[in-house]
Amino acid sequence: MDDNNEMASVKHTEKTWLSQIQAYYHQALLTLSQCDLCGNSSSQQTLICSTCLADLPLFKQKIIQGDLLNWPAVNQGLPRIHFDHLFSLSPYLAPFNHWLSQFKYQGRFELASLFASLLAKKWQETHPIQSVDLILSVPLHISKWQQRGYNQAHLIAQQFSLLLQLPYQGSALIRIKKNTSQVGQTGVQRRHNLANAFTLRHALGEEIKHVMLIDDVITTGSTASEISKLLKHEGVEKVTVVTVCLTLPKH
Ligand SMILES: [Zn+2]
Predict the structure, then answer these.
(1) What is the DSSP secondary-structure string of 63-103?
(2) pTM for the full model?
């Protein structure tokens, strides 16, 4: 290849790259203005259109007074828990199950804003004058955190606390024991594996009486319960667990 041909080839490659980048941004812009569920045009802030928003399978918070533990089926499905209230948006159903897996394993960080804004809105509707002293999030073990690159519960908690203007301490809780898969384990095994799995980096302070603990999903309640036990040992009086989804274990 002589110099001229080589130059032409470089220019051609640059042009191809440029058009590919332009096409990518064009597509990205289109995606941002489309509803994540139906594809109709939507505002960038909400990710979904008002029709799909109204159609989400959310819990009827008013019937249970904003606390899933008031619902006998949930209360009986979560035996021996140490937290006092449970606030979740939706059962683990579509589209939340797909969203949560995209959020957790495919880095769709923009979903944190959607979850946080839905949670904040529903929380304010059902708990207009609740005093919460501090928000914490369920931590990941450092090895899992490094592997994934982020903690999904932290991302939700960060935005949720900003919306509700409540103090949040993202690094107060630490997970010191690695979690093994809880699938197929009995309640006793789960509690045994989780015993002393968490610690506090520093004392929370005597004024912290009501803590809100954020996670993406609650299933057996063992993780949230173990953390609640620790918090109560440290002087916290009330723990409210807040999650995007609830999925009860099958018995
Ligand atoms: Zn839609």
Answers:
(1) TTTT-GGGSHHHHHHSTT---SEEEEEEES-TTHHHHHHHH
(2) 0.84
